[in-house]
Structure formats: C-alpha cells, structure tokens
Amino acid sequence: MPIAAWPTPDGGEEYALAFDSGRARRLLILPPLFDEGNKTRHTLVETMRRLDRMGIDCFLPDLPGCNESLAPLEGQWLAGWRAATLAAAQHFGASHLLTVRASAILAPPALSGWRYAPTGGANALRAMLRARTIAGREMGISENADDLLQAGRNDGLNLAGYRLGPQMVRDLEGARLPDSGRLTDLSHAIIGGAAPWLRAEPGFDPAQADTLAGFLAVELGK
Prior knowledge:
Elements: E1 3-7, E2 13-19, E3 26-30, H1 35-53, E4 57-61, H2 78-92, E5 96-100, E6 112-116, H3 121-138, H4 145-155, E7 157-159, E8 162-164, H5 166-173, E9 183-186, H6 188-191, H7 206-220
Parallel strand pairs: 3-4, 3-5, 5-6, 6-9
Antiparallel strand pairs: 1-2, 2-4, 7-8
Helix pairs in contact: 1-7, 3-5, 4-5
C-alpha cells in the first residue's frame, strides 16, 4: 500500500496511507477512534482504492498513538489530536474532508466535506465502557461503568484493548458532537448493510466500499 510520512506539531512524524497523484480533488479521511477504527479500516482502505481509480487523491493518516505510531496512546489528548489532524490536512493539501463516527470531533474547521455516521466522544466512551462491563460479566467479573469512569478520570483506563490516559478519558467524556459547520452528515442508511464498526471482528463488504466511493466521487465532482 502507498505510505507517506507527515510531520506532527510536536516535531514528530506519523504515517498515512496516501493515494497521491497531485490531483485537484484531495480527500483527507479521519477514521473512527479506537476499536471502531480497527473494524472499519479495511472498508476505508478499499474505498480509497476505488476513489484513486476515479481520479481522486485520498489520505488516511495515523493519529499519534494509533496504528503504526511510535507515540504512546496513553499520552494523547483531544487537543493534540485536533492539532495533528490540522497538520495532516495542511501537509497533504486536502481540499475536502471525510470524518467517520467519532472522528467528527477532530474535524479541521476550514474544510468542507462529510461526516459519515457522526457521533460524539462521550458516546464513543460510553460504548467502550459498556463493552468492557459486558465482557467482564461473561468472565464472571462485576464492573460498574460509573466506577470505571471515575477511576479513568484519575488514573486512565484500559478499554477495548486501548490504554487511555486520564486526560483522554476526561476529554472524551466532555466531547459532544459539534455543529456540522461546513460538513454534511452522511447517514449509514445511504451506504446500506451492517455498520462495519458494529461487527464483532474486522470485516469488509465490497458493496459498502463501492457505494461510499461512488457517493463521494459524485459529490466531489459537483
């Protein structure tokens, strides 16, 4: 896959999947956060392959602490991620933006584009807390979401295999879905099929990648 590096505001460097042929239409894609990002990555990569064939450059950056990043996830916070997404948009010369799920809370405000099935950080945090308590019950462990959240505010928390620091927990708790601004909301009903972020394991539906890429290509061509 085509990989490119981009500079982060703290002087570091992260990677991005980049289909870059210097074309005018340049779409920055912000993936879902945490486990939802893992479950949807294949779909987003295949969507990008289709967009590339349609004449659209597209970029999927790794946020600091995620995927191949050498930065520790536990040390990340939302303000840092927002600065990083802005840096990625500027580095790649993005003309448009697609956020997916809770990455809507990281959107650079100057870009036009779309929010695919947007949700807030607080909703994403609650979903991960709920998943942990359910998994705990299946193993005979009794945990309360409110107690976990209180502990996470002070000491950080392991959720869905991700170690979140206390600042990230507090940030997510207060991160409601913002006004759409220059972005248009895209309902998953338009894409159809089972939502990829709800799968038990990462998967891929070619029809969803076809539909998402087709929608974006039409909109970018207007």
